[in-house]
Amino acid sequence: MLKSLSTAASGMTAQELAIDNIANNLANVNTTGFKRSRVEFQDLIYQMVQQVSPTTQGTETPTGLQIGGGTRAIASVKDFDQGDPLHTGNSLDLMIRGDGFFEVLLPDGQIAYTRDGSWKLSSEGKVVNADGLPMEPPLDIPEDATAIMIDGQGLVLVRTASTPEPTEIGQIELARFVNPAGLESLGKNLYAQTVASGEPVVSTPGKDGLGTIDQGYLENSNVRVVEEMINLIAAQRAYELNSKAVQTAQDMLGIAANLKR
Question: By residue range, what is the domain housing residue 15?
Answer without folding.
Answer: 2-80+223-257
